[in-house]
Amino acid sequence: MDYLALTARCALGLVFLVAVIGKVRGRAAYEAFRRSVPELVPLRRGAAVLPALVVAAECAVVVLLAVERTAAAGLALAAAVLLAFSAGIGRALRAGVRASCRCFGMTPSPLGRLHLVRNLALATLAVAGAAAVLAGGPAQPHPAGVALAVAGGALLALPAVFADDLAALFAPPPGR
């Protein structure tokens, strides 16, 4: 077990878990998420099933990351999902679409570069974690190293999950 891989698994597992819970915590939350998807991905076919596929992919990431044997697949899937999200956000930003971010199902804040940067940073973490899994690590990890990796993953997840709140906290007051 490599400490970088464990940190990445914990951070991304928490991020994706919060994303899933935020979207499926109730009928209203899922409906709000479902209605926001066509703003990002204007599909003619498959638009009705895409929100369910997103939630299923996010659930799969959480499950795959939770099991050490499937961690590399979970990290690869996380990177692919995050890059797909980034592509959708980038397309919307270039087109001037004022889509709302229902990334975590909680707030309808408008998508912006912050969301793109966050997703690309998380995708980079997923790729680095996957590389660390494939490279291997100490067979008998030290308990303190495991504790630090888990805590580090949790700390990395916090700003990713609360990016909109943190941005609002540090934004200049309206009218300035």
- Rg from C-alpha positions? 17 Å
Biggest sheet details: none
State the share of residues found in helices, binned by percent. over 70%
Structural class: mainly alpha
Strand content: under 5%
Separation of the first and last Cα atoms: 50 Å
Anisotropy-based shape: globular
| Weakly predicted, low-confidence segments | none
Elements, N to C (H/E): HHHHHHH
Task: Give me the count of strands.
Answer: 0
Number of helices: 7
Mean of all residue-level pLDDT scores: 89
Explain what the structure shows.
The protein contains 7 helices and no strands. The longest helix has 25 residues, at 71-95. Helices cover 73% and strands 0% of the residues. The mean pLDDT is 89. The chain is globular, with a radius of gyration of 17 Å. It has 176 residues and is an all-alpha fold.
